[in-house]
Amino acid sequence: MTHETQIEALLEAFRASPRFILTSHARPDGDALGSVLALAEILDQLGRQTDVVFADPIPLIYRTLPNIERIHHKPSAADVADHSIPAILLECDGIARTGLLGLEDRILINIDHHASGRNFASINWIDEQACAVGVMVYRIALAAKVEITPSMATCLYTSILSDTGAFTYSCTNANTFAVVHDLALRGASPSQIARDIYFSNPASKIRLLGAALSNLQCDGKVAWAWVTSQDMERTGADAEDCEGVVNYLISIAGVESAVFLRELPGANEFRLSIRSKGKLDVARVAESFGGGGHRSASGCTVGGPLDVATGRILIQLRDGLC
Ligand SMILES: [Mn+2]
Predict the structure, then answer these.
(1) Distance from Cα 85 to the centre of ligand 1, integer Å
(2) What is the structure's pLDDT at 61?
């Protein structure tokens, strides 16, 4: 099926129901939030009611997104009880990824751009070439002939900026810039959005970064670093403050893949963020531990203690680079 046919099938599904539950994955990032909020506005313009739900709190840097106050943290009891209400899932490979309860036994609509994407829903549109789901939602907006408002443009620009690593990942191409050019024309402010995302860090995040980088290990093409629960406590950091630490590791010259490990509180487990400059497919690596993601950015959870978790991941990264 072509992308056009799949978008047409989506629009048909949008027309077929008066109300939708709209969500994305747990621990939402800029793409999850921006693309969901923009799609909610598309559905508004199509005359549909939408319950916008995310299981987890909104990271501080995204709280200035337009219409962020629409987000609830669990679907309404009435929506859960009414199985005729379809659920639209962005960036998920199944219901479990949303972290929400009550989505079972209803029509599911799946829009995703992950290599680990799966056809789990009634309608599935997976485009691995898309640099962000925000680009897919942009295409839906054009096909639906709705007005791309300044607030939608801001949400979609945020999606694309964050999911391309500020236009640096290998998925960034001429089409990316054609889309963000159009979004800037329609009211997205590149400087304001960059300020909100990259220049609004809490001090705890920078302290945590210091703790992580003081543990930096670099061996040939692989770099790694970690923080313990104690480091988290000492710096006053939370999970959100760990976002992006791994990007400092992969920024080292000659390093082809990098991993950042965060000890999970109360569990003998570590949350891993893995990056690659492109030679190694780290989505595959994460999948082997039950996680997922993209070729050059992925994540998973691995059992501890630290030396065991580190050993298991380093074997995979080194073998993959041989
Ligand atoms: Mn994404």
Answers:
(1) 25
(2) 93
